């Protein structure tokens, strides 16, 4: 362009952000300043989105300072700032912005605060905020996410009633959130009622319901639902998450042959390459069923073919060795796991437990000393992938 104005620079920056290139957006932002153009409100809002997508707190604070200097303090800018700080985990800074706002708080701002509370695990604050406002679709979805995370069935039932009263019970996103909430609260029957009444089911709906059955050991029901999905009209194609849910269901119910068939189906019919999490799930399934030799053969083939061995695969194989008291193979896998992910506390504890189970007391004590010396803290474990 022979001559670039602020609109052209803004268009370039927005394009970079829209296509997930925050570094390129920052470079264009610096180019705009070097060309002598002051950032407009649109420029700063776009740069806040770039910082949000890359979770860049320090550049975000610099952009925040520019908004103050330029007196761009409208509700749209404040909403973008609140969303940014919440996304970066800076909840207190977001709350300070909210407290000092002079304008009335609009729906978009309330939704940004509410989703930020849920994302950062501040569920009490989220529930309190919900109690003081008339919730919309986004707020109700956030509320259901909070109920899922806290397994709060009583509050979840109240939110469901609100969904019905507001006439949102035909909306797929909210129904998916309800299925996930009921499943994580342990009421699969309630989840299935919501699922069966849905007028439009997408792949997330099917995957959430299958995962709900998986969580509670209902492998046969999960398989039956998967087969129904394959025959559904309009056609719904399973994705990698769906197959992870069905493999987990087979594993928790001891359905090894069915799990093996689904892993093969994933590749042969749907052309989906299994990821490390799928192989880890299958190895765990084989280990639970006592089929350690097949698990070991698969593990060895993955070690040979994968450029980078996954920690999840190593953990699954080590668990299989522990449950089948295979000390020799377990020692090999423990060595691989230390190479792949030496700083993970759960892995170190697992290795220590393996050595203790194998009566290798000195090695087990050494592993625990490493944990104490590094000041590491054990994290809560989970065997499921969230569908929400």
From TrEMBL:
GO terms classed as biological process = RNA modification
Q: Name one GO molecular function term.
A: RNA binding
Give start and end residues of every PPR repeat.
5-39, 202-232
**What top-level branch of life does the organism fall under?**
Eukaryota
Q: Per its UniProt record, what PROSITE patterns does this chain match?
A: PPR
Q: Which UniProt keywords apply?
A: Repeat, Transit peptide
> Which Pfam families does its entry note?
E_motif, PPR, PPR_2
Entry annotated with the keyword Phosphoprotein: no
Q: What is this protein called?
A: Pentatricopeptide repeat-containing protein
Write down the species: Lolium multiflorum (Italian ryegrass)
């Amino acid at each position: 362009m022979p001559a670039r104005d602020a609109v052209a620079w803004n268009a370039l920056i927005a394009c970079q952000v829209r296509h997930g290139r925050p570094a390129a957006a920052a470079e264009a932002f610096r180019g705009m300043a070097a060309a002598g153009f002051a950032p407009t409100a649109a420029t700063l809002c776009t740069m806040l989105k770039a910082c949000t997508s890359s979770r860049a707190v320090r550049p975000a604070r610099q952009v925040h300072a520019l908004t103050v200097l330029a007196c761009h303090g409208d509700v749209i800018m404040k909403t973008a700032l609140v969303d940014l700080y919440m996304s970066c985990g800076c909840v207190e800074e977001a709350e300070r912005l909210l407290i000092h706002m002079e304008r009335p708080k609009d729906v978009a701002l309330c939704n940004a605060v509410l989703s930020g509370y849920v994302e950062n695990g501040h569920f009490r604050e989220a529930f309190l905020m919900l109690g003081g406002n008339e919730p919309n679709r986004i707020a109700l979805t956030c509320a259901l996410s909070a109920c899922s995370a806290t397994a709060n069935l009583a509050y979840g039932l109240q939110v469901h009633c609100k969904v019905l009263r507001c006439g949102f019970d035909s909306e797929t996103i909210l129904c998916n959130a309800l299925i996930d909430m009921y499943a994580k609260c342990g009421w699969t029957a309630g989840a299935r009622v919501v699922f069966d009444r849905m007028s439009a089911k997408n792949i997330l709906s099917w995957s959430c319901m299958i995962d709900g059955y998986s969580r509670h050991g209902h492998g046969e029901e999960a398989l039956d639902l998967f087969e129904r999905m394959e025959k559904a009209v309009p056609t719904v194609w399973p994705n990698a998450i769906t197959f992870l849910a069905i493999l987990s269901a087979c594993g928790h119910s001891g359905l090894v042959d069915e799990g093996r068939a689904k892993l093969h189906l994933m590749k042969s019919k749907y052309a989906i390459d299994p990821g490390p999490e799928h192989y880890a799930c299958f190895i765990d399934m084989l280990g639970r069923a006592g089929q350690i030799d097949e698990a070991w053969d698969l593990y060895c083939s993955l070690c040979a073919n994968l450029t980078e061995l996954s920690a999840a695969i190593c953990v699954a194989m080590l668990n299989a060795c522990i449950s089948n008291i295979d000390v020799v193979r377990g020692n090999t896998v423990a060595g691989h796991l230390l190479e792949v992910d030496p700083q993970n506390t759960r892995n170190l504890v697992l290795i220590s437990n393996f050595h203790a189970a194998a009566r290798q007391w000195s090695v087990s004590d050494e592993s625990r000393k490493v944990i104490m010396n590094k000041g590491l803290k054990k994290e809560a474990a989970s065997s499921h992938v969230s569908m929400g």
